[in-house]
Design a protein that fits this description.
Rossmann fold, 11 helices, 9 strands, 21% strand
Length: 277
């Protein structure tokens, strides 16, 4: 169990919601018009066209105003389109916080799909509730399964053969949350995915050479450090995307939402999609 934690961490978890997932191997088969360039075995996606159905999900008039206020910095339409999330899919949102990403996924997979919305007990007690419970009570989220488990083993046994698992803007905190075994966490996510299923991680970019040394102070992680972690679990890096990149970001300021102030939503963020072989 995680014990006491700084106010900054509470703030950070306010954005445990999410985006990202590259298109299938054959994007035309899924109707996902993502454009990019091959970089070795990794596809680098630089442009995503948003289908009408995805735009309608983001523009839905019944979405909460607080959620819509985050959209400019999150680009959820582009992210959902890039992800290729479709009706009927089974997905998970790890460390979902108050559920911004979980609801977007629920709308995208529709009533024939399922979203496992995960939080730890500590997150639920100290941060997510009552907003998380209120969100789950909305009819639009009836296909979201509430999961309360520790990060070492975040998904229940019935969460298997998943199409995708998302972890957005919180992976860096697993380095300093007390008691988190990232190797076990990544292995558990691997088990829950179907072969070819994707593990999508979005996080605030740290400067070259900083590794994980600034995960607690300014809530950033060097991309290569995170990549090394997940590759060690047996995943393969399939794609990255540039639509959350911010070249003007000096990457030396605190990216946690309230600490960021007016800079919130402008941090340089990487989107990596790993695949289960």
């Amino acid at each position: 169990m995680m014990k006491s934690i700084s106010f900054t961490a509470l703030v950070l978890l306010a954005v445990a919601c999410g985006d990202g997932l590259p298109p299938p191997v054959d994007p035309s088969a899924k109707g996902v018009p993502a454009k990019g360039a091959e970089r070795g075995a990794v596809k680098h996606v630089t442009n995503v066209e948003v289908p009408v159905a995805i735009r309608a999900i983001v523009d839905a008039p019944d979405r909460d105003a607080d959620d819509k206020a985050l959209d400019a910095g999150r680009k959820p339409a582009e992210l959902l389109a890039f992800a290729g999330v479709q009706p009927g899919m089974k997905v998970a949102d790890i460390a979902a916080g108050r559920g911004y990403t979980s609801e977007l996924l629920a709308r995208a997979v529709g009533p024939s799909g399922v979203v496992y919305g995960h939080n730890t007990a500590w997150i639920v007690e100290k941060f997510a509730d009552p907003a998380w419970s209120a969100r789950l009570a909305k009819p639009i989220n009836k296909n979201v399964v509430k999961v309360t488990r520790e990060l070492d083993d975040p998904l229940p046994p019935e969460a298997k053969d998943l199409d995708a698992v998302f972890m957005v803007l919180v992976y860096h905190d697993t380095y300093w949350f007390e008691g988190v075994d990232r190797a076990k966490m990544n292995a558990a996510i691997m088990r829950a995915l179907k072969p070819g299923g994707q593990y999508v991680v979005v996080d605030h970019s740290g400067r070259a050479g900083t590794g994980a040394s600034e995960v607690k102070t300014i809530h950033r992680i060097e991309e290569s450090a995170l990549e090394k972690d997940i590759l060690a679990a047996g995943f393969e890096l399939a794609a990255d995307a540039s639509f959350l990149r911010s070249p003007a970001d000096t990457r030396d300021w605190n990216a946690a939402p309230f600490a960021a102030g007016q800079k919130r939503g402008t941090s340089d963020r990487f989107v990596l999609s790993f695949v289960k072989p």
